[in-house]
Amino acid sequence: MESNKRPENMERITTPALAEAFIAQQVTEIQAQVGDKKVLLALSGGVDSSVVAALLIKAVGKQLVCVHVNHGLLRKGEPEQVVKVFRDEMDANLVYVDAVDRFLDKLAGVAEPEQKRKIIGAEFIRVFEEEARKQEGIQFLAQGTIYPDILESGPVKAHHNVGGLPEDLQFELVEPLKFLFKDEVRVVGKALGLPDGMVYRQPFPGPGLGVRCLGAITRDRLEAVRESDAILREEFAKNGLEGKVWQYFTIVPDFKSVGVRDNKRADEWPVIIRAVNTKDAMTATVEDVPFALLQHITKRITSEVSGVNRVCYDLTPKPTGTIEWE
Ligand code: XMP
Predict the structure, then answer these.
(1) Tens digit of pLDDT for each residue in 312-324?
(2) What domains are there in the chain, each with its CATH number?
(3) 13: which of 108, 184, 233, 264 fits an S-S bond (Cβ 3.0–4.6 Å)?
């Protein structure tokens, strides 16, 4: 059985030169493993799956089939960026699946957070499975497993992620990053020519904006989360906070409060801003965002995001608050 332990003599990948050496070695190994067969990859656009995609494109080109499922819960511009980087710039074999209506229909009326997570996870596997069945001759499944995934879940974790696929769709795994830590994955991604916005992006939960649109998801509130998140990210980037703050995002609760718009009282939603720092996500502290910047962001969100009349800043560390609101 293949070892799941990082070789003791493996040097930490901290420089472009070390990344190049790792890439060259992986390209050789992937070519030897895959031969002339086809490989399937669920490409979310997150750091790990993007680096795996770039590495496999280098090794086996169009034998890699990337499947990007747009479930409607991604951040503004993300699906477009995946298409631009991988299809347009890297000439990858990319299947783009617009599953927005499918996911939002399944989630309609579901308010319980764990239930929402389950629906999103199960539907994701179903969509991916359908796409896998449309492809001929796939023998391998590439995954962005990294070393902390293996350490956290014990030695059998490498096979855990394919557990969701049915028996007749069990593929051999290709996991080129399985001995790397996150910071090493970023150095490799940079050496592979991926854009900084992809390589250095903040952590983003699997259920995406679905757990930031509190309670039962509606399309209009989901757009309010997406648009306010985009403004927050833009302003943090402009003001030197991108890459400095560990995680920052907006939340839209499922209630309204009264405000004034065009000289009339109007009920609209609040947007909550959360910006936290942490090492391991077990505890977190709140970022001390300059008050003037918070006021500027408030002004932009209340004037640019439809249906929002208030902005609040969450001052709660973890504990007692978790990082996400659901
Ligand atoms: P909490 O909210 O528990 O979050 O303090 C800790 C970290 O985990 C992320 N998170 C998730 N990631 N699926 C994920 O992949 C999830 O369902 C999920 N829930 C929370 C959260 O963004 C934070 O980084």
Answers:
(1) 999 999 999 999 9
(2) 16-199 (3.40.50.620), 212-313 (3.30.300.10)
(3) 184
